Amino acid sequence: MNTALKLFISRLTVKTLPQAKRVTKIVIGFTLLLVGIVLIVLPGPATVVIPLSLAILAGEFVWAKKLLERFNSGVRHIRNWRR
Q1: Which CA distances in Å does 62 have to 6, 43, 56, 74?
Q2: Which of 7, 31, 49, 80 is surrounded by the most beta carbons within 10 Å?
Q3: pLDDT digits over 17-45, tens only?
Q4: What is the reported pLDDT for 79?
Q5: How far, in Å, CA of 74 to CA of 57, rounded?
Q6: Quick check: 68 and 54 in contact, CB under 8 A?
Q7: Is there a contact between 46 and 32 (Cβ–Cβ < 8 Å)?
Q8: Whole-prediction pTM
Q9: Cα 15 versus chain centre, distance
Q10: By CB neighbour count within 10 A (0-12 exposed, 13-18 middle, 19+ buried), where does 52 fall?
């Protein structure tokens, strides 16, 4: 293989690997979020799946981080109320 072609391929993979990881996290996060929303209506652990999906998406989106913080503060409030 030509050295210029090898260099091009190595630079291409270094640049696209973080992008591929980011896209994968986003796709998995939104898929889990949709499953969690469906589990609100259907029987299932929506209270586990939705925060998990928000935790995955919080690394990429500010709105997901804010929703996860709001969910966590609500859980803390409920824990303190029960004591």
Answers
A1: 38, 29, 12, 18
A2: 49
A3: 788 888 889 999 999 999 999 999 999 89
A4: 83
A5: 19
A6: yes
A7: no
A8: 0.73
A9: 21
A10: middle
* The residue to which tokens 């709001």 are assigned: 70
Q: Which two tokens stand for residue 69?
A: 């913080």
Q: The tokens 């391929």 sit on which residue?
A: 9
SS3 sequence, the chain?
Answer: CCHHHHHHHHHHHHHHHHHHHHHHHHHHHHHHHHHHHHHHHCCCCHHHHHHHHHHHHCCCCHHHHHHHHHHHHHHHHHHHHHC
Q: Can you read off the two tokens belonging to residue 14?
A: 């270094």
